[in-house]
Structure formats: structure tokens, C-alpha cells
Design a protein that fits this description.
Pathway: Metabolic intermediate biosynthesis; acetyl-CoA biosynthesis; acetyl-CoA from acetate: step 1/2
Mean pLDDT: 92
GO molecular function, one term: magnesium ion binding
Cofactor: Mg(2+)
Organism: Aulographum hederae CBS 113979
CATH topology of the largest domain: Nucleotidyltransferase, domain 5
Order of helices and strands: EEEEEHEEHHEHHEEEHHHHHEHHHEEHH
Strand content: 15-25%
Number of strands: 14
EC number: 2.7.2.1
Low-confidence stretches: none
Length: about 425
């Protein structure tokens, strides 16, 4: 392994692009810098950059309109940063790791070649908010950095251990529907949560059992037994389970047909490559707490005093505690901790308090002092010392998880 080489870990969201830069000098990824452009769906886009003492936050970018523009800006910014000598030439970037939401039956990360690219492309209909943007970036990066090896790390991989009786839907088992099953998502986040939390608890991951909550604009829950995903709230697509900023979460499947007579018709957002029905667009982009409150900002929702704000919060808390209760039973009460992660999970002290207060009957309790003043650690204990089970807040790091996976299989990936 060349000590001069670097790894880019690329995390494309539906309206943002985050890139972390890691040194490949050792077997442990060392983050050199992190850059993020957000607001791509609600201009102006804004820049956030961190490298050592160099900090940029909230800088508006007038000419960045989409993911491609954002990638071009990010690469130019990195190459021209005098404080980043490890990245002065395009050939310095050995690997580009891409977070890809839906990987289908792939049980591990893949080198992106023609076959894997088209496989991911075929899965885009199952994750229309994410896979398409990831593919666009992969294609653009391949053209911009032809010597860089592109890798796909899938959110579905972590959940490949879910037992068949949990992942199978009770529908006719034709050859086509055999692939219509629960895949689960946020897997890179859950792998990061497991790694960090087991270290905090001083236990090997293989003997750590958690109920983990990834709460952000997209939200999910996961039951982890002895280091493996046992169940998770998202299913065939990221739509099922908990409500999100614009996603409905679980609803009666017949609901959309009562809301519109054209649920099965193609949405105006569909393209030749990407097919989205009106029902899918409605449930993915026009529901969630935005539909109830008029904003996707959950911080504003939980601080709001309107009845619709309270209703949105109550719905989310109710759905979360329902899943935690079900997973607690599924794990037989053998739980090392309840873990909050994701933007809302990490920052939402009031939401954590509401959730945990509703779970006292199971042996969870929060320390209001610790919960209101979460420190800077990767994992922070916010639970009561008298409680039977721990309550933790974890700063998940999907980019570091990808970089670590790249280093672990470096020689294999180099061979293609």
C-alpha cells in the first residue's frame, strides 16, 4: 500500500453531497478532511468544510445546482487546498467509496465495473431518491478520475443476516417475487453504531445486542443480536417503517388508492431510466412530518406549539416505542443498550426524553442532566445509573465505515 494514496468516501443524499478524505497510510482510516454541500433541492446550496483548524460553515454557493456541480466543486476545492498536501494530483486518489442505498442480493462491497453498475441501475426503482444520484456520481467520477477505483458500499449489506421468516413477505412466491423481500437500509450507519457502541461497552461486536435508532429525515430502527441484524423497520424499499421528513412510513397499502385514482400511473418525475409511480412519489416525497406541519425541519416541529406540531411528534414517538417494544421481545430482553443516532437522534434531547420515558416499563430510564448536555464523545451515556438498561447516543460515521472496509480488502479491490 502506497503511503501517498488517499481514499474518498462519498455519501450522496437526496439533497446533499458529503465527502470525507482518508489517508491510506495504515490499517486504520485517518480522516484528513470532510466537505459537505447541502441544500441542493432548496437553493442556495451551502458549503461546510473541516480540515484541522480550517473551518468553513454556511458559505453560499451560487453556481452549484445539482449533484454533478457539487462533485466538481468539491474536487476543485480539495485539489486547491494548500493544507491538504496528500491530495495534489488526481492520481493520489486510489479509491472512491460510494454509499449506495440498495444493493439487492450483494452481501459485500463491490468494485464498480460494467456489470455491477447495471445491477445497481436495475435496483434504482426500489430506492429512487438515492440510487440514481449515486450512479450519476459514479459515472461522473469515473470520467473525471479515470485512474481511481470506484467501490460501492451498500446500505443493505448489514441486513443480509435477517432470517428468512422475517425477511419474507407473505405474497405468492413466484420467481419474480422471490426478490421482493425485506432488505433493510441505513446498514452502514448500523455497522458504525455497532462498532462504536461495542467498543464503548468493552464487548466484542459478536456478543453485543442493541436496539438502534437511526433518526434523521429518513428514520429507521434495527434489532441487533450478537453483532448481526435480526430485524429492521425498512423493507423492500426505504419507505416502510418509521415516518420521515417526507416519507409516510408504514401505512395501509390500500391508502394510496383512496387518495388518488391514478396511483399506479407514472409520475411526472419518471424518466426513461427511472420509473416512479404517482403512489411512490406521494408516499416518498409528499408525506411525513412535512405533510402534517409544512416543514421538514424536525427541530422546528418539536419546538412548535401548534397542534399539528404536537401531533407529528406524538406520531413519531408512538411508532418508535412500538418498534422498540417489538424488538425488545424479539431479543428476549437480552439488550445491552438502546442507541440513538442520526441527526435527530444525536441532537434531539427532548425526543430522546419522550421516547425513553415511554419505555420505563421495559427498564429504560434517562438522566435528564446528561441527556441535556451530550458531550463530544463518539458514544455518550445519557441513561439513568439506576436503570436496568443503558441508553446511549452515538455519532454514526458512514464514511469512516466505508474507508475501513476499503482498507480491510485493499489488495482484493486493487485486483478488481
Amino acid at each position: 500500500m502506497s503511503s501517498s494514496k488517499t481514499i474518498l468516501a462519498i455519501n450522496a443524499g437526496s439533497s446533499s453531497l458529503k465527502v470525507s478524505i482518508f489517508s491510506a497510510e495504515s490499517d486504520t482510516p485517518n480522516q484528513l478532511a470532510e466537505i459537505e454541500i447541502s441544500g441542493l433541492s432548496s437553493p442556495p446550496a451551502t458549503l461546510k468544510y473541516s480540515r484541522g483548524d480550517e473551518k468553513i460553515k454556511g458559505k453560499e454557493l451560487e453556481n452549484v445546482k445539482n449533484q454533478g456541480d457539487a462533485l466538481d466543486y468539491i474536487l476543485d476545492h480539495l485539489m486547491n487546498d494548500d493544507g491538504l498536501p496528500q491530495l495534489k494530483d488526481k492520481e493520489d486518489i486510489e479509491f472512491a467509496c460510494h454509499r449506495v442505498v440498495h444493493g439487492g442480493d450483494y452481501s459485500q462491497a463491490q468494485v464498480i465495473n460494467r456489470d455491477t453498475y447495471h445491477h445497481i441501475e436495475r435496483l434504482s426503482d426500489l430506492a429512487p431518491l438515492h440510487n440514481a444520484s449515486a450512479l450519476s456520481l459514479i459515472k461522473s467520477l469515473h470520467e473525471t478520475l479515470p485512474s481511481t477505483i470506484n467501490l460501492a458500499f451498500f446500505d443493505t449489506t448489514f441486513h443480509s443476516t435477517i432470517p428468512r421468516h422475517i425477511s419474507t413477505y407473505p405474497v405468492p412466491q413466484s420467481s419474480k417475487s422471490n426478490n421482493l423481500r425485506k432488505y433493510g437500509f441505513h446498514g452502514l450507519s448500523y455497522a458504525s453504531i455497532l462498532r462504536s457502541t461495542s467498543s464503548f461497552l468493552k464487548k466484542p461486536p459478536s456478543s453485543t445486542s442493541l436496539i438502534a435508532l437511526h433518526l434523521g429525515s429518513g428514520a429507521s430502527a434495527c434489532a441487533i443480536r450478537n453483532g448481526k441484524s435480526l430485524d429492521t423497520s425498512m423493507g423492500l424499499t426505504p419507505l416502510s417503517g418509521l415516518p420521515g421528513a417526507t416519507r409516510s412510513g408504514d401505512v395501509d397499502p390500500a391508502l394510496v388508492f383512496h387518495m388518488t385514482n391514478s396511483a399506479g400511473d407514472m409520475s411526472a418525475s419518471s424518466t426513461k431510466e427511472l420509473h416512479i409511480t404517482q403512489a411512490e412519489e406521494m408516499l416518498n416525497k409528499k408525506c411525513g412530518w412535512n405533510a402534517l406541519t409544512g416543514t421538514t425541519d424536525f427541530g422546528a416541529v418539536i419546538a412548535g406549539e401548534r397542534e399539528e406540531d404536537k401531533l407529528a411528534v406524538d406520531i413519531l414517538v408512538d411508532r418508535i416505542i412500538g418498534l422498540v417494544g417489538a424488538y425488545f421481545v424479539r431479543l428476549g430482553g437480552e439488550v445491552d443498550a438502546l442507541v440513538f443516532a442520526g441527526g435527530i437522534g444525536e441532537k434531539g434531547a427532548e425526543l430522546r426524553n419522550k421516547v425513553v420515558d415511554s419505555l420505563r416499563c421495559l427498564g429504560f430510564a434517562i438522566d435528564e442532566g446528561k441527556n441535556g448536555k451530550v458531550g463530544d464523545g463518539v458514544v455518550e451515556d445519557v441513561g439513568s445509573d439506576e436503570a436496568r438498561y443503558k441508553v446511549l447516543v452515538c455519532r454514526t460515521d458512514e464514511q469512516a465505515e466505508m474507508a475501513r472496509g476499503c482498507l480491510e480488502r485493499w489488495d482484493e479491490f486493487k485486483k478488481g
